[in-house]
């Protein structure tokens, strides 16, 4: 087959000129532009419909026409040599494109140009999905407005005051930093903000968690197309060493505790309640005569009811409070924290974060050797008990811990005024 385009003598001297290659013919037209200079147009049928490609010189137009003729001729040769499978694939491709009103040639040309930018089909598909996600129809709302709406929902659902306060503080800080519409916040912006806070690993993850909650809320209500915080860096919290108190240290803390804080300290040490659970605990939940404490679903972190036994030591420390009613801790959250620090300072003992609960779980596991039982009392899993508290203390130390008793009955405590239930 002759692959060199041919022109007749007459075709070289008249317009339009024609380039022929096999069954393909490409026409070149000469036109005067509005400025009076000649322009040259190549009729291009490669996409199935005629279009005119413009060129400034005859030479450029001829080169383009030759190249177009060669490409179209090669396409004809390929079509003629198609197998049945090739024809079936071609037909399937035509049918797939038909609902979109796009020809196979146009689709192939567009795909080729896209692949020049993104290199492969998986990347191209990911780019399309990203574009679609970022261009969904959303209701524009400022970050501060979405934060306010989220807080209102949490309040309406009766989330714990402490949880609401945590959200208010962290998300309030986020809203102050992002004075824009929620849908315009990007992953790099959130990552940069988190990094700028210079937080500990645990605090970083706490902030990341509440920001993720905010954008999940925004996506669900149509204020954002996607959740940009989901792909921010997640840092593994190792937890470090588990700190506990010795029997001697807890004796000093109990001796130094003010009357209004002593029940919380004793319950934390000898029943393992969390600080948040202590702040929500009511005297009606403490059954001294029956020797158990009920942690209701609304009080527990895991929203699951559990029952914790009252040991002899705890019963002794709570005996002088048996007539009290209302909340065990009657102060505010910040005052609870201040009471912890003041008691530790008065006792000359360092206050260790979550050490009351860790101490109880460690000594209780050593005493019972029953991970399931301790897990049920603490409101976590047997796997957690095994991982964090197994062989952390000796049995003799556990016996000493639960033998810590008041030296003199009612000398360091007073009966608090009853509060109406």
Brief summary:
With 421 residues, the chain is of the alpha+beta class. It has 17 helices and 7 strands. The strands form 2 sheets. The protein has a 4-stranded antiparallel β-sheet, with helices on one face.
Protein described:
The model is unreliable at 8-12 and 409-421 (pLDDT under 50). β3 and β4 form a beta hairpin. The longest helix has 23 residues, at 58-80. This protein has helices at residues 58-80, 84-97, 104-118, 121-134, 143-156, 161-177, 187-196, 201-220, 247-256, 262-271, 275-280, 312-318, 333-347, 355-368, 371-378, 382-389, 395-401; strands at 17-21, 24-32, 38-44, 51-55, 286-287, 292-295, 306-309. The protein contains 17 helices and 7 strands. It has 4 domains: 17-80; 84-134, no CATH class; 143-231, Tyrosine recombinase, N-terminal domain (DNA polymerase, domain 1), CATH 1.10.150.130; 247-401, Intergrase catalytic core (hpI Integrase, Chain A, Orthogonal Bundle). It starts with 16 loop residues before the first strand and ends in a 20-residue tail after the last helix. The chain is α+β, with helices and mostly antiparallel strands and 421 residues long. It has a 4-stranded antiparallel β-sheet with strand order 1-2-3-4, covered by helices on one side.
């Amino acid at each position: 087959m002759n692959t060199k385009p041919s022109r007749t003598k007459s075709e070289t001297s008249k317009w339009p000129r024609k380039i022929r290659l096999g069954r393909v013919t490409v026409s070149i037209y000469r036109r005067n532009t509005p400025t009076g200079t000649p322009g040259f147009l190549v009729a291009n049928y490669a996409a199935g419909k005629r279009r005119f490609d413009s060129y400034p010189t005859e030479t450029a137009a001829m080169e383009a026409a030759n190249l177009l003729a060669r490409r179209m001729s090669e396409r004809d040769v390929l079509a003629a040599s198609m197998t049945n499978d090739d024809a079936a694939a071609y037909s399937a491709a035509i049918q797939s494109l038909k609902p979109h009103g796009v020809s196979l040639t146009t689709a192939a040309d567009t795909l080729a140009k896209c692949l020049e930018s993104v290199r492969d089909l998986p990347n191209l598909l990911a780019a399309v999905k990203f574009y679609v996600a970022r261009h969904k129809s959303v209701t524009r709302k400022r970050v501060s407005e979405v934060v306010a709406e989220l807080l209102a929902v949490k309040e309406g659902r009766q989330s714990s005051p402490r949880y609401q306060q945590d959200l208010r503080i962290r998300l309030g800080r986020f809203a102050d930093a992002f004075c824009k519409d929620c849908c315009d916040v990007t992953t790099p912006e959130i990552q940069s903000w988190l990094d700028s806070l210079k937080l500990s690993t645990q605090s970083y993850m706490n902030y990341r968690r509440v920001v993720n909650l905010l954008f999940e809320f925004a996506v669900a209500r149509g204020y954002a197309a996607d959740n940009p915080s989901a792909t921010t860096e997640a840092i593994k919290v190792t937890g470090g060493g588990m700190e506990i108190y010795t029997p001697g240290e807890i004796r000093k803390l109990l001796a130094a505790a003010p009357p209004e804080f002593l029940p919380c300290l004793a319950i934390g040490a000898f029943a393992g309640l969390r600080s948040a659970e202590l702040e929500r605990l009511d005297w009606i939940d403490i059954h001294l005569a029956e020797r158990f404490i009920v942690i209701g679903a609304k009080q527990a972190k895991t929203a699951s009811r559990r029952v914790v036994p009252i040991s002899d030591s705890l019963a002794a420390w709570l005996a002088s409070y048996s007539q009290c009613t209302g909340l065990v801790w009657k102060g505010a959250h910040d005052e609870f924290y201040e009471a912890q620090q003041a008691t530790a300072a008065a006792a000359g003992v360092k206050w260790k974060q979550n050490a009351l609960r860790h101490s109880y779980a460690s000594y209780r596991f050593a005493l019972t050797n029953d991970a399931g039982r301790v897990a049920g009392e603490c409101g976590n899993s047997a796997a957690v008990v095994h991982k964090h508290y197994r062989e952390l203390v000796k049995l003799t130390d556990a016996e000493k811990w639960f033998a810590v008793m008041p030296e003199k009955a009612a000398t360091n405590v007073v009966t608090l005024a009853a509060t109406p239930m």
